[in-house]
Write a structure and sequence with these properties.
Chain lengths: 641, 476
């Protein structure tokens, strides 16, 4: 019995025993992968794309969190990435994976930061970017059947001309349906329509056994697939309930003197039975940020509430209710801030790297929680700004943002540590972490009650006995090195760490290390360290959409740029791909962080040109092949106003 | 088959972007470099950048024909088109912006400009626009087009022609043959209206030599060139100088080198002609007669006196130079002179040359129909060299197209291209009329309808009954 086994048996006893996994689960994945790749290649043919280049594997090893020490804890570099184009192919993949006991990590747009899509044991990443067909629209019943890889923005575009629209949607508008189902799905419109679960009629799920099952909203199993981060099966399609497109949006923005006053206002409004489409709270710091982006002091920097109506009757009811409360902002400002809801990551701080903490909290505890975390954030020397969607009569989804700089490693580490600290405080206020993934896995007992957890575990054992779907997270984070570092992520240990983190923070935040000057920073540097890899750009980049080459994906190019800036080795063929860009500027238009990508690409090319020559022939071939593509022109004309 | 005369053209792209009729503006903020415009444009206005095809280069405005295709097809509506203000300011009422555009196009490509299907007018106007040519044979064009097997000659003779030939017993020609020059196109290069640097003249004479035609040049501008055989020196005030015995020594030298000279008309011109003939008998002498009230009288006098070439010279817009009737146009003047000589039965003995206002290829054909043997062209030659007729150089200002820096070979090519296009258009006209020789076109007023004639025919009776006959002047 090796050392590894000892640890596995002792420290990991609970899981190992409760699932009854065999001990040699992923041991020989590496030696297997070559044969496996050949096997998959011959089985899949043209129905899927297999990627195993070093660069591609690297970019699929992270999500927007990009926690720097992930690699120390996990085998986060996948063996292979598969982009299935057909459901049939996906079925084959999962069958083979189950037979060969290869871990599978399904991935949408990777826009959560909790590690939900990050591999933990190598294995295969299933990228849903090619399973993005809108299958069927039923205008009578007002439902639409979409594949899980479809992005919310794509549905909105599709419905544009049909007088229909979605009920709720996430603020990361370019993420996928599958992703939102897996992460629990609260967002814009949730106050009126609830979370994603209540806007879905049925889903089709592929189980590790290879079985495909259609599960209706009335079925007992239905709720098991929402917010469980792909532990039980792969959602293939979903039937979304739609609604008639509202004639207009009537946003109102009201300033208050304190968070407490704002929350009281919301509570009173709910008591009065006024039902807006959406309620959003923004703290004074968030409004200040908006002013900074605009470059003028248009908004009063006060805690404020944005209430949006679509129904004029409700709107009138609200106006008579709200007439004597708070200070009403001008209509155009309310419209502006409503429009900006899809750009929650826009920042204009001096530090480039945004960090965020997300949790739901009872409305009554909202303002005391805010007070507490503001005090705590000061100890970490960060300025937080808070926005919140009211997602139920007594529940708020809180998003806490603050900026750091990934280049000041120790500071960054301290800032990272603040996230669980904020979550921990939230839990004390009866809050619940929004997702688990890897980094929130220690909080599982706080998120899921005991009974449900037992039900989950039993179901997991039933449908995925070999634990091939997203192993090593959600239930418990399981690290490499025989899970020794994983001790840190054990709920008990982790709780202790978060408790002592505020004490250590002054050490990490020693003044000597205070930020470097960012003045003579190039646009590329700024962009690279500000990009949150939300993937909005990927959904509009013609070069990427036509070639489906991951190296052309703007957010992956950002990774290449980072390597260039850090002076890491870049292969010539990877560098060449960076030039295959039409400089159309579509990415710039949708960038959630409002980064000047056009300039950044030029600087990236310039930097690469110093090392390798400009690949003139490759560029020429690229341009002519793009121009010859019918799909390209369809895409281009879809932009026509 | 013997070789046909044809002028070889070769592309001579402009050194400076010519003024275009339209301005297309690309909104760089909107443009997504999709390349749609480069694919739909038939005229290469839009191109991907040569050094980096991912970007679209600036629109080449002057090539735009205003078809709006790129505007309509642009998915981002990033392109706008508008009239070019600078274009509207080009030239004057006679030398219209259209004329410049057409000449620039012909000088660049050597091809006939085609503006589209259908003619949208105008259907009549001033000057050369007040006559219509008959092209009825268009229903039976030459068998395989003007560049096919049929020969159509465009060459003309300059000089006196013998009225009759007499032969001796052996069948040899006995009568003396007057000297003549043959040129393959009914065009010679006239004195250009402004003074220019030597390279401009060099361009002109190179082109004249290539084409086998002549170039008239003011003696003040005379220069030594290996193409001297194609130069025609012009002497002003020669009789005065002769009277004052001021004949300069170069004069004789110049005379000896040339086949033809031109002298300005004055009262003692015949004495000068005599003097030149004394120096060199086979010299062809052309007299430059300013178009005015007494033109007919002078033509008559000189024709009977045996002058070989009568060069009827209007101003640059084809108008009379000194006359009570300021609106008289050069085509009417040449028609009068032609008819006068026909009446006197000496038309074939003299060569009538017309200059002033020749701006387009059709003007050559129309001038010939009105009785000219040869036309002399001036301003279009300069325009072919990219000149914008802005007259800045006349005020000592810089030239927008830097004619001083012009390479004479390149300049010559542009002129050759223009002449090639003009000749091809002349061939089209001749082909459409069923004529095989441009000399048959001379004085063929039956091939044309003159606005004045039909106005007379249509309105004479009506107006006479109303007692306003004196306003109507018959052209017959």
């Amino acid at each position: 019995m090796g050392v590894a086994k000892v640890f596995r048996c002792t420290l990991n006893q609970q899981i190992a025993c409760s699932y009854g996994f065999s001990e040699k689960r992923y041991g020989d994945i590496r030696s297997m992968s070559r044969d496996l790749k050949k096997k998959l290649e011959s089985l899949l043919g043209n129905d899927a794309r297999l990627l195993d280049g070093a660069f591609e594997r690297e970019v699929y090893s992270m999500d927007i969190g990009a926690i720097p020490f992930t690699g120390l804890l996990f085998d986060n570099i996948p063996e292979m990435i598969i982009q299935p184009k057909k459901i049939e192919a996906l079925k084959t993949i999962i069958r083979v994976a189950n037979e060969e006991r290869v871990a599978i990590f399904p991935r949408g747009s990777g826009s959560s930061g909790l590690g939900g899509v990050v591999p933990t044991v190598g294995g295969m990443v299933i990228d849903f970017s090619s399973l993005n067909e809108i299958d069927e629209l039923d205008q009578e019943k007002m439902t639409i059947i979409v594949q899980a890889g479809v992005r919310w923005s794509e549905i909105e575009n599709f419905l544009k001309s049909k007088e229909l629209t979605m009920r709720t949607y996430p603020s990361s508008f370019f993420s996928t349906i599958g992703g939102w189902i897996a992460t629990g799905g609260y967002g814009i419109g949730s106050f009126k329509f609830g979370n994603i679960q209540s806007q879905i009629e049925s889903i089709e799920v592929l189980f590790p056994s290879g079985e495909i099952k259609s599960i209706n909203q009335d079925d007992e199993e239905f709720s098991l697939f929402f917010g469980t981060e792909g532990q039980f099966g792969i959602v293939l399609t979903a039937t979304l309930k739609l609604r008639n497109k509202p004639r207009k949006a009537l946003p109102h923005m009201i300033y208050f003197d304190s968070a407490e006053a704002a929350v009281n206002f919301i509570k009173d409004m709910i008591k009065e039975n006024i039902v807006p489409y959406n309620i959003k709270y923004m703290d004074a710091a968030h409004i200040g940020e908006t002013n900074k982006i605009l470059g003028e002091r248009s908004f009063r920097e006060k805690d404020s509430v944005l209430v949006t109506f679509e129904d004029e009757l409700e709107d009138r009811k609200f106006l008579s209710f709200a007439s004597n409360r708070g200070i009403h902002a001008e209509e155009y400002l309310a419209h502006y801030i409503w429009h900006e809801r899809l750009f929650s990551m826009k920042r204009k701080g001096s530090k480039p790297t945004p960090l965020a903490c997300e949790l739901t909290i009872p409305l009554e505890n909202f303002s005391p929680y805010l007070k507490k975390i503001i005090r705590m954030s000061k100890r970490f020397k960060v300025k937080i700004n808070v926005e919140s969607y009211i997602i139920g009569k007594d529940e708020a989804l809180v998003l806490i943002h603050y900026d750091s700089d990934v280049r000041n490693f120790r500071t960054y580490l301290a800032h990272l540590a603040l996230i669980p600290v904020l979550t921990k405080i939230g839990i004390a206020f009866r809050g619940v972490p929004y997702g688990l993934g890897i980094w929130n896995a220690p909080f599982i007992n706080e998120k899921i009650d005991h009974q449900t957890l037992r039900r989950y575990k039993a179901y997991k054992h039933e449908v995925d006995p070999r634990n091939i779907l997203n192993p090593g997270k959600f239930f418990t984070a399981r690290t490499k090195w025989a899970n020794i570092p994983g001790i840190l992520l054990k709920p008990v240990v982790f709780r202790t760490i978060t408790k002592i983190a505020p004490m250590f923070s002054p050490i990490l935040l020693s003044p000597i290390l205070e930020e470097k000057s960012t003045k003579d920073e190039t646009e590329l540097e700024k962009t690279v360290y500000s990009c949150v890899k939300c993937g909005s750009c990927a959904s509009v980049c013609p070069a990427y959409l036509i070639t489906r080459d991951e190296l052309l994906n703007p957010k992956n190019k950002m990774h290449l740029a980072k390597k260039l800036l850090l002076g890491e080795t870049i292969t010539k063929s990877d560098a060449e791909k960076a030039f295959l860009c039409l400089h159309c500027g579509m990415c710039r238009e949708v960038c959630q962080n409002d980064l000047d990508l056009l300039t950044a690409w030029l600087e990236l090319e310039e930097g690469l040109e110093h090392i390798f020559d400009k690949p003139e022939d490759a560029i020429q071939n690229f341009v002519s092949s793009i121009e010859a593509s019918e799909e390209y022109w369809r895409f281009v004309y879809a932009q026509k106003v | 088959m013997p070789k046909k005369y044809s002028i070889a053209g070769s592309a001579a792209p402009p050194r400076f972007q010519p003024v275009g009729k339209f301005v297309i503006e690309r909104n760089e903020d909107e443009c997504i470099h999709c390349g749609r415009c480069t694919l739909v444009c038939l005229h290469d206005v839009h191109k991907r950048r040569g050094d980096d095809p991912r970007f679209i280069s600036e629109p080449v405005n002057y090539l735009c024909k205003g078809c709006f295709r790129c505007i309509q097809e642009c998915p981002k509506e990033a392109l706008t088109i508008k009239n070019n203000e600078e274009w509207l300011l080009l030239g004057d009422s006679y030398w219209t912006p259209e004329t410049f555009g057409k000449i620039w196009y012909q000088a660049e490509t050597g091809s006939i400009p085609v503006s589209g299907t259908g003619y949208t007018g105008p259907f009549s106007g001033e000057g050369f626009d007040s006559m219509w040519t008959d092209m009825s044979e268009i229903v039976r064009p030459t068998r395989d087009g003007i560049h096919g097997r049929e020969y159509i000659s465009t060459s003309v003779y300059i000089g006196r022609k013998a009225q009759m030939l007499t032969f001796d017993n052996k069948g040899k020609i006995k009568s003396p043959l007057p000297p003549t020059l043959s040129i393959p196109i009914p065009l010679i290069f006239d004195i250009i209206p402004f003074r220019f640097s030597k390279n401009v003249y060099e361009s002109l004479v190179k082109a004249a030599s290539f084409l086998g035609t002549f170039m008239i040049i003011d003696l003040d501008e005379w220069f030594n060139s290996k193409y001297q055989a194609n130069l025609v020196p012009f002497f002003a005030n020669l009789s005065k100088k002769m009277n004052q015995k001021l004949m300069f020594p170069e004069f004789e030298g110049v005379i000896k080198k040339c086949k033809m000279v031109e002298i300005a008309y004055d009262l003692e011109v015949l004495k000068v002609v005599e003097e030149i003939k004394r120096l060199k008998n086979e010299m062809i002498v052309s007299v430059r007669i300013p178009f005015g009230d007494s033109t007919n009288k002078i033509v008559e006098e000189l024709a009977f006196a045996g002058v070989e070439v009568l060069h009827l010279c209007a101003d640059v817009n084809g108008k009379v130079i000194s006359s009570s009737d300021k609106n008289r146009f050069v085509k009417d003047g040449i028609l009068d002179a032609h008819r006068l000589l026909v009446e006197h039965k000496i038309r074939d003995e003299v060569t009538l040359m017309l200059s002033g206002g020749i701006a387009m290829a059709e003007h050559v054909a129309k001038a010939i129909i009105c009785g000219a043997d040869v036309t002399a062209v001036d301003l279009p030659l300069l325009i072919a060299l990219e000149c914008r007729y802005c007259k800045r150089c006349q005020n000592g200002l810089s030239c927008p197209v830097e004619l001083k820096a012009l390479n004479s070979d390149y300049g010559a090519q542009r002129i050759i291209n223009l002449m090639r296009a003009w000749r091809n258009q002349l061939l089209e006209v001749l082909g459409a009329m069923g004529l095989r020789d441009v000399r048959r076109l001379r004085g063929e007023v039956g091939r044309a309808i003159l606005h004045e004639d039909i106005r007379h025919e249509t309105f004479e009776k009506i107006l006479r009954s109303e007692g306003v006959t004196n306003n109507i002047k018959s052209s017959n």
